[in-house]
Design goal:
Number of helices: 1
Largest sheet: 4 strands, antiparallel
Distance between the termini: 17 Å
Strand order of the largest sheet: 1-8-3-6
Oligomer: single chain
Number of strands: 8
Length: 110
């Protein structure tokens, strides 16, 4: 039986080189400890994912940076852990992924 306090890992973006994706309050309100992974594809040579927080998903100002997932090698996983109560989380490709694509996963728990 699954605990009601666990948020399952979700694929945030799949096989991208640019762009972003956002978790809104429906997901963010369920967790305060977070972990995300960047899964760098074969052939990648660069890229950065910036993880950011804001009070709500439609916020149009500058979001608060929580950290980055910076490319280290092709066919590798990089991880970022962070805590806090967030109204929304954004996973943004802040440096274009070159030579391949990245998939980002995120999950959390209370």
């Amino acid at each position: 039986m699954r605990s009601a306090l666990v948020v399952e890992f979700k694929r945030v973006v799949t096989d991208v080189t640019t762009g972003d994706a956002t978790f809104g309050s429906a997901i963010c309100s369920r967790a305060k400890e977070w972990c995300c992974y960047a899964e760098w594809g074969a052939g990648t040579t660069a890229g950065v994912i910036t993880v950011e927080s804001a009070p709500y998903s439609g916020y149009t100002g500058t979001w608060q940076s929580l950290g980055t997932l910076t490319w280290t090698a092709a066919s590798r996983i990089d991880q970022l852990n962070f805590t806090g109560l967030h109204g929304a989380l954004r996973f943004r490709v802040s440096t274009t992924v070159t030579g391949g694509t990245v998939t980002v996963w995120a999950g959390g728990r209370m």
